[in-house]
Specification:
The structure is a homohexamer of 161-residue chains. Chain A is of the alpha/beta class and 161 residues long. Chain A has six helices and five strands. In chain A, helix 2 links the parallel strand 2 and strand 3. The mean pLDDT of chain A is 92. Chains A and B meet through helix 4 and strand 5 of A and helix 4 and strand 5 of B.
Chain lengths: 161, 161, 161, 161, 161, 161
Amino acid sequence: MAGIAIYPGSFDPITNGHVDVIQRGALLFDELVVAVGNNPGKRGYWFDLEQRTDLVKTCCAKLDNVRVIAFSGLMVHAAQNNGANVILRGLRALSDFELEFRNGLANRDLSGLETLFILTEPQNIFVASSLVREIAQNRGDVSRYVPAAVNRAIAEKLGAP
Amino acid sequence: MAGIAIYPGSFDPITNGHVDVIQRGALLFDELVVAVGNNPGKRGYWFDLEQRTDLVKTCCAKLDNVRVIAFSGLMVHAAQNNGANVILRGLRALSDFELEFRNGLANRDLSGLETLFILTEPQNIFVASSLVREIAQNRGDVSRYVPAAVNRAIAEKLGAP
Amino acid sequence: MAGIAIYPGSFDPITNGHVDVIQRGALLFDELVVAVGNNPGKRGYWFDLEQRTDLVKTCCAKLDNVRVIAFSGLMVHAAQNNGANVILRGLRALSDFELEFRNGLANRDLSGLETLFILTEPQNIFVASSLVREIAQNRGDVSRYVPAAVNRAIAEKLGAP
Amino acid sequence: MAGIAIYPGSFDPITNGHVDVIQRGALLFDELVVAVGNNPGKRGYWFDLEQRTDLVKTCCAKLDNVRVIAFSGLMVHAAQNNGANVILRGLRALSDFELEFRNGLANRDLSGLETLFILTEPQNIFVASSLVREIAQNRGDVSRYVPAAVNRAIAEKLGAP
Amino acid sequence: MAGIAIYPGSFDPITNGHVDVIQRGALLFDELVVAVGNNPGKRGYWFDLEQRTDLVKTCCAKLDNVRVIAFSGLMVHAAQNNGANVILRGLRALSDFELEFRNGLANRDLSGLETLFILTEPQNIFVASSLVREIAQNRGDVSRYVPAAVNRAIAEKLGAP
Amino acid sequence: MAGIAIYPGSFDPITNGHVDVIQRGALLFDELVVAVGNNPGKRGYWFDLEQRTDLVKTCCAKLDNVRVIAFSGLMVHAAQNNGANVILRGLRALSDFELEFRNGLANRDLSGLETLFILTEPQNIFVASSLVREIAQNRGDVSRYVPAAVNRAIAEKLGAP
């Protein structure tokens, strides 16, 4: 399909589930803008905005029509500033559903942009950044859930045990 | 966006919720194929396939890039036969979610076609063909939930009270 | 509270969960009209309308401000014909939620009547007429889930094992 | 209906969804007590208790049988101190359901007071104080979701951009 | 673990999701009784009880501590007649949850037997007999979802296209 | 059943719902290890690890095959260090479901240990440590929800009103 889609998230850190959505989204649109956000209402990210953005860039380096940006403020402004004409989101398990619905309607109210939802692969249904953080902070192995570059960044962040 | 999307359903009958998805979907794709299906496993439709298809055609007559077809058998075959490169579905309330997820993954397995989900307008969240049938069969007024042509077809079907 | 509430259902058969809602609803309103319905779209009841209504009457005999009626057609018409100014429904588990929401909004559209929902006692959360029918049809003991009169009616219906 | 209902919440800030419940609740009861609470376990409100209460009062000024109070401690004590004989809550989307169920049963255990749930208008289903705070803190327009007085209070709170 | 578990279902037909639960359950218990049931309240199975039982037997032939039985009537009676001291069920997606909860509590009421739930592999989360039937009846390929013996039985049942 | 099960949680504090799971779990396994955890990612427990562990020990004192331990770090390491060959969890309401599913699959990935879920008694479905904390911090009576020893510990912690 022609058109530019924006795929926003906090990517703290990017997981195999995110990569799955990015790879499949890149096949559907002329360009996919992966937008790494800073939510001012949120207390404390694990990785800072620069690190999160760099890791996303590393994981998307081979995808020609994917562009990675960082943003703060309203996501729909980042969408408009980057020429996106649709928002892309991955749907995983049910717990996402209502928040995604709420955000999708609010974003349409704020900007006129529609949100299109794509399905996550079943094996990634339960892979979430929060799960990765919990296991890694307890010194567990997260290499099944994240790209190799993220696994190395986590090991470096946590230092020698 | 360029590309052809297929929007399948049984449309028994088409409601304002369906029309909402069709109108907004038509803005997102070069062409939207509305595909009215006959599910062999289902017991008894209220309107037959020809009537359902005709009502959808009437309701979409003013939308230039919408084409209405009838199909039986696997939906993904109808999608492929009509050149669709993506499946469009509306997401309403939560009860849709798991069935849509299941069907979306199965359709990807069967055909490689992705399903993109679009949000229904909140005022249409609870508008469903089953609700329309229930109220109409009890001689209640369904004019809030269906296009005028459908309302007339229902009145005709039910005859004078 | 003053006012007349209608508590509609198919009561096929009435369970301890229904009785719980009726007893507590009767304390909240001047009068509670328990309305036993025949849904024309439904295939086959276990007990017929007269039996279902009689069993509800038996179970509510000691509640002075409870009146039991049978109805067919739209429930809101029965509500209006019986002077109800509000609809009462019990909320059990989650699976009820969306259907109740849909019906509540449709009934407000059709009649202006609001629906008020009351919580079911936890021990009755999973007690449903469908469960009673399934167990009884397999000759299991349902005496935990239904009033004694219903248990006798079921035994009589099923005959000697 | 006769009787006094209490409608508790944190109203941080009051939204069009709350106003919808208050207006419809006021038609159902002799008096509706809107109770603005301070939950000691909660970290940081956006507006303080006095501001939240004043905004609710402003938004309810034209409703004769609505009284607005502030409370801290257990809500059921506020209910009893204000003569309420029932608790009123709005049901929106599914995510509310289990928490409301839990609170409703606990409040019945603590006080004997029943909770009655009323349906939110579909267009308000996704309107929540948390959504308003998120958008406003990112300098987005929330005028669709809150009464004019709240919109002004937010603009004042956030100052010139 | 020592002990005999019963794993009941209608297996119409047995899928890879069922096989996954059986294989993993067989590792947890001394003996696993797979119980193929006939629910008198259900309208029409796709395969009859004998065919369903034979297919389950074929798929479990290499599992030494798995025994396959057919039953009708109450499942807990089959459990007791076969010496089971616990019921095993697989949990897939959310839609199973409430029905499983209801049945689990009812079975405890009826027999004192606890139900233990095991998680389905993510790739099997959306694999259900109903999906297999729908696709196969439309002449789609179900070989991803069922063991080879089931695939052959379906082809035979449907005959040449 | 033979075998050692681990039942992990934060037990802040232990409730009647936990005790119900422990009592029934103790009947199913040779030994049940109740494991009281410290999650490093969590902000602030109400009772510290020693108090929580002591209260669990007090409440399980009469159960011969129940052993209580405290742990930090990954739960699956505690499981392996204590010889557990299965993880036991109670399933309450729906809100637990997805988190439990996610954790169960992650724990299988990390350790090969399966999680078995047991149903909570309906009367305990809405009893949660968070509810107990909320009510107690507002000086409400929680004696319906916790064992007597916990009730005394809470009274002591909160001091004279």
